[in-house]
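Escalated from tier 1: copper (II) ion holo job.
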Amino acid sequence: MKGKIFFLLFAAVIALGCVQQAGRNETAQPNQMGPEAQPGVKQFSMIIGHTFYNPATLTVDKGDTVVIKAVAAPGTASHLHGITIDEYGVNEAVATEDTNNPQIIQFVADKEGFFTIYCKTCWSGPYGRGHPDIRGVLEVKP
Ligand SMILES: [Cu+2]
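Tier 2 regenerated the structure:
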């Protein structure tokens, strides 16, 4: 009986550890849990603030369709921060803060390598030319 309790405790500790591990994974992995998840499609929910992208790193495989569901951080929509990836022809201001109705940015990742994600839509705004602090990376694996 005592052994059984110890085993249950042990299992609970292991399970808790896994949950914490999952919670720590803030970047890199697409959130594909929704009903729209399908093979070859990588979806990311991204928040754009005055000084950050969250997540800041998007990792996909070459050939994937990348879907970024972007919203401006609370109180920042009027600044029209955006998402620009020159090599993929992406350059969109994101003015919505509504996480239930995000702005969809979609493209096919047909070039491999590392690509800078930056804010060009308010290029000469009060946060500095090209927002040196708002930087992200798109990694397209071969
Ligand atoms: Cu900006």
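The beta strands are 41-48, 53-54, 57-61, 65-72, 82-85, 90-93, 103-108, 113-118, 135-141.
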